[in-house]
Amino acid sequence: MDLYSPLKKFFGFNKFKGLQEQVVKSIVENNNTFVIMPTGGGKSLCYQLPALMSEGTAIVVSPLIALMKNQVDAIRGISEHNGVAHVLNSSLNKTEIAQVKHDISNGITKLLYVAPESLIKEEYVAFLKTQKISFVAIDEAHCISEWGHDFRPEYRNLKHIIKAIDNVPIICLTATATEKVQEDILKTLGISNANKFKASFNRANLFYEVRPKTNDVQKDIIRFVKQRMGKSGIIYCLSRKKVDEVAQVLQVNGIKAVPYHAGLDAKTRVKHQDMFLMEDCDVVVATIAFGMGIDKPDVRFVIHHDIPKSLESYYQETGRAGRDDGEGYCLAFYAYKDIEKLEKFMASKPVAEQEIGHALLQEVVGYAETSMNRRKYLLHYFGEEFDAENGDGAAMDDNSVNPKKKHEAKDDVKLLLEVIKNTLQKYKAKEVVNTIIGKENALLNSHKTHLQPFFGIGKGKSFLYWMALVRQILVVNLIKKEIEQYGVVKLTEKGQEFISNPRSFMMTEDHSYNEESDNSIITNAKSTGGATDEKLVKILKDLRKSVATKQGVPPFAVFQDPSIDDMALKYPITLGELSTVHGVGEGKAKKFGKEFIKLICDYVEENNILRPDDLIVKSTGTNSGLKLFIIQNTDKKIPLEDISQSKGLTMSELIKEMEVIIFSGTKLNIDYCLDDLLDEDQQEEIYDYFMEADSDKIQDALDEFDGDYDDEELRLMRIKFINEVAN
């Protein structure tokens, strides 16, 4: 069968890409066909070409209106007949629907794109029953599976609707599917006999990196983007609020960025998408609502501000980088706190859905915390082997560029495999590890595992250590995850053999992203881009002490420690620059700044220091309205309760906002409310304490007064104190 002349005639290509030829042949020969092909692999041609070659109309089920529109426009561009492709969805009026039906009846329409919701409508089903249908293509087929990263309940019903229309072949296509999802799709559609085609998931030009997410994540992003000025990138956030906030911060810092999420009206969304395509802006900050219909080949970086809910989502979203086979940098910021947040969101869902969600999240944790080759880890998740030494793109990830220490773990691997065997291969990884470290729970006790001689056999090492080892032996195929009861780990033949004949196993220590270790990672990260200058910190502290002595105030009333640290990172040499330092506003800069700036200026010159211009990150001033509101209302002597209620703040949040104002050097007089709280002697006692104290930490004051005053009273008195002595 000649497929090349139609390929040339309709698409102008002389040859097929990857698996396209085999897939097209399977469809043209009327077989059920299942295609797994990464984004950018030429998925749509697989059903467009057979549709154009066959008699009748092919129905294409697709979840996204924007995507359908793009594809219809593209097909219309290669045919002299506009009716060759149509969309049938909720956006059409009666006249347009009549035109679609007319073109189908007259054999003009080769491709009819429908949303699953439209296909359910009885009037459409009744009409399509009377027409010649060539086949049904289901795009984004992972939406069928509850284990897919984008499950849509309306997809579950497709099998019955297709049968009602006509007994035609079904073609499923997806850009990402694990074995579990594949099985689910084939079962649900009743096409277990389908011809399967799976392309490689390896995108060798993409570089993968995971960094710890700290409070300075927005600064890190700005620094990263500024090093790539003029290049296109996408930044994904989980919430609309975060999208708006990050887009604003980027704009304020001179980066051409636009937000994109479902909360914006359709016109704005289209405008922002077009700006990105036409290069009127460099960066789109988006929720996952963005990018499905985008075919921009030169996206140079994809940043995940928040870690996604599954590795499929992550793979899909990073896959938008480097479609032209040029540079593509995939940077994700990870903190376990985000995982806990996502787990909280799940709490309201049905139990079955929660279980799936938790399992998918654990895969994400594994990817983020692993210290092995990230590409190998990712490809293993999609059921693909990868040679981390010589494979295509082998050294393209942070773990390969900065490898972590390895140690011999042969005995631990054997012990782990034996515990899986002795617990009859019925536990998920977490329970296997709980057995090893001897941590009882209801499940283990119900199986009497806690009474076994091997319970607690590895308690000398931590839970995290054993979990890391589980992940590493999974990737080298000593164990596998059961498909039916997803997450239950079983021994493979290779694993059985290891027990009787152990051999060397070099284990790498995983990254630990808990709070304590964060700091060490950050300092290392900063040492490449300027760490806090310890020598300068010491000199600045000496100056602070002498200024404080001269003024007769404690040193912290001049500048707090975090401000000193920040000065030693940014080297501000003008009052304007000094006022961008953490905890220093214009008032404070004017009052104490001159001597500090002069000292830094001389220091920079003497030591030939290259000042980091890009480190001065401007904030969006989103809080300036609130700041003004608080200053005006305290001037009017409005009770603090009323101020906090009118802005929906708790008292503690309001005091926090007031502290930000006062520490940055702006005056704030709250004597009127303190007089209602504390009598003159009490105020004097606390005031004298702060005057003599080494630090202004509230915990120290609470310890000193041993319950005489509460947290709120002390914080308000500290505000009065700073207002009078420092501002």
SSE diagram, text form:
Layout: H1 4-11, H2 20-28, E1 33-36, H3 43-53, E2 57-61, H4 65-76, E3 85-88, H5 94-105, E4 111-114, H6 116-119, H7 122-129, E5 133-138, H8 158-165, E6 170-174, H9 179-189, E7 195-198, E8 206-212, H10 217-226, E9 232-236, H11 240-252, E10 257-260, H12 266-277, E11 283-286, E12 299-304, H13 311-318, E13 328-334, H14 336-346, H15 351-369, H16 374-381, H17 398-401, E14 406-408, H18 410-422, H19 429-437, H20 442-446, H21 463-475, E15 479-481, E16 489-491, H22 493-500, E17 506-508, H23 515-528, H24 534-551, H25 555-558, H26 561-570, H27 575-578, H28 586-606, H29 624-635, H30 640-646, H31 651-663, H32 671-677, H33 680-692, H34 698-705, H35 711-725
Parallel strand pairs: 1-6, 1-7, 2-4, 2-5, 3-4, 5-6, 8-13, 9-11, 9-12, 10-11, 12-13
Antiparallel strand pairs: 14-17, 15-16
Helix pairs in contact: 2-3, 14-15, 18-22, 19-21, 24-26, 24-28, 31-35, 33-35
Keywords:
727 residues; alpha/beta; Rossmann fold; Arc Repressor Mutant, subunit A; 35 helices
What can you see in these coordinates?
There is one protein chain. The chain has five domains: 4-198, 3-Layer(aba) Sandwich (Rossmann fold), CATH 3.40.50.300; 206-401, Rossmann fold, CATH 3.40.50.300; 406-505, Arc Repressor Mutant, subunit A (Orthogonal Bundle), CATH 1.10.10.10; 532-615, DNA polymerase, domain 1 (Orthogonal Bundle); 624-725, ATP-dependent DNA helicase RecQ (Arc Repressor Mutant, subunit A, Orthogonal Bundle), CATH 1.10.10. It is 50% helix and 11% strand. The chain contains 35 helices and 17 strands.
